[in-house]
Amino acid sequence: MPVNCTFKLNNRETSTLVCTGYGTVEAFSGQKHGRDNPDAVTIAKIGPIPRGTYYLVDRQSGGLLGRVRDALAPYVGSTERTKWFMLWNPETGDMSNIKGVMRGQFRLHPVGNEERSEGCITLVNPAEFELLQRFIRTSPPILPVPGSTLKAYGMVTVK
Q1: What is the top-level taxon of the source organism (predicted)?
Q2: Which of 9, 59, 152, 159 has the smallest C-beta neighbourhood within 10 Å, fewest atoms?
Q3: How far apart are CA 155 and CA 104, in angstroms?
Q4: CATH number assigned to the domain covering 3-158
Q5: What is the H or E stretch that residue 66 is in?
Q6: H or E element in which residue 88 lies
């Protein structure tokens, strides 16, 4: 059964990601003055993920260089990117034009050593992310993503 999650932008330091059948986890999106600030979605690398519905799909790795970066990430201050999820917008794919500003490559992942988010939904507790990603992956991705060949584990609605 597909997973259904909700994340609310609340103008606070953190918000909650609520996933049916799993529960609530502490998370945030964006950084600095844009953290969880819905008025900052047009600020690239600062603002949070724009409101909308996103499909939860396995994160794609781009070519040989992407695979090398993914393999080295845990050793240079990032997290294990192979466990991350891509948040796919069914209307615009991995990139969106918001009032003339290109935003995209939004992911669901745990916080890293730099404790930043450039618009991804970032879980505060890496151990909680590990449990959540296992829960999400208990069933294979079967939900068709409109306009693509991708299959999703479920959906995240950002309010």
Answers
A1: Bacteria
A2: 159
A3: 17
A4: 2.40.440
A5: helix 63-72
A6: strand 85-88
